[in-house]
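sanity check this fold:
=====
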Amino acid sequence: MALPTQSDDFPGWYQAVVKQADLAEPSLARGTMVIKPYGYGIWEHFQRAMDDRIKATGHENYYFPLFIPAKLLEKEAEHVEGFAPEVAVVTHAGGEDLEEPLVVRPTSETIIWATYAKWVQSYRDLPLLYNQWANVVRWELRPRVFLRTTEFLWQEGHTAHETADEAIAEARMILDDVYADVLERVLAIPVHKGRKTAAERFPGAVETLTMEALMRDRKALQAGTSHYLGQNFAKAYGVQFQGRTGEMEYAYATSWGTSTRLVGGVIMTHGDDKGLRLPPAVAPYQVVIVPIYRTDDDRARVLAACDGLRERLSPARVKIDDRDEHRPGYKFNEWELKGVPVRVELGPKDLDAGQVVVARRDTGDKQTVPDGEAGARITSLLDEIQQNLFAQASAFRNEHTFEPANFDEFKSLLAEPGGFLQGNWCGEGECEAKIKADTKATIRFLPLEPGTVAGSCLHCGAEARERATWAVAY
């Protein structure tokens, strides 16, 4: 079935790619999804890369329960208010009403900090550097597979520190050395790093750091956040320790997370009208070999050569598509749709000529490679494709980043072509809210390091206090 084009129907294109590439499908409960093996394979490779980096920075994994006593959320009023519309509550189980309702985990700060109160007694117990891989539930009103679902998979880090400086450095290190590194080097998605405005911060956070990416429909995607929580949760849940002077002090906190929405980000950053274009680092199959034959004798000879090539390509993830029920042309189209970075075509004529035909998904280019050089050439090609997808995505983002001279131009550029719009902002929440109400654009990020701003606010004309970047976002 032909895909809609991105230019005519981007949401339809996205849904069709998810379905036809066999990534995921809606499940029986509204807003939930089944992640199918090919889609889960992308998540697994992302997860492995992220987990390796998290552990390399000294963090360990643990696991906390899915169910949280509702009374825990009530202790942190700002946190509760922020999540109240999304929280699912269990009031009946085991054939009877529960004495105390249980919240289905929307995030884990509350139960984790209630537990940290038992773990922390002295400054010698700090820091606590932990992460968990889990599922969470947030009651989503407008679900879209991978991007916004009622239940999704993620990692959430929760750390406790002796000082504010340590916690602030932790939040920044996660954003720079872990999150941005995985997004750009593994998913090949260029990101802007910055601070959220007070209106856009995580509930209960003192500061929220974010990384923002631009999709091919010129909408922004929040790709991950890292929060400095100050002492808010420590005070709410009584996490105190005896400090170096003997006085009792409250711990400082961070939390940070990325989720399966990044699978959607890979689709929308790199995909084209033919389907997926997967970065080799997260592709379930990096190379697919399509054998071409007509007779049984040719089949045995060609498949033996395919096996030999697969061995030479190790440790690359290689699939030999030896299905006899489909013709080569069908297989070419299917693997193109599924975004496999490199396709190899190998038939009797190629064997006689001592060559293989190699096609790259990112550009569509084909080349004939001597058989003896195929292993090394394909291996280097995977690196080239990874770098090229990042370069293409970076160029697209740069081409769709604008500095409007006034608010009329702001609205015009936002409508067509869309993208990131950068300009001066007065710093007032009322002005921010009016821009959002008028255009649906939100401030995606402020610079990580606040600086002096000259000039007036793009919207209201008041003296500017910040440089802001706006976009319409998922």
Notes: The chain has a mean pLDDT of 96. Residues 192 and 212 are 5 Å apart (CA to CA). The chain has three domains: 10-270, 287-388, 401-471.
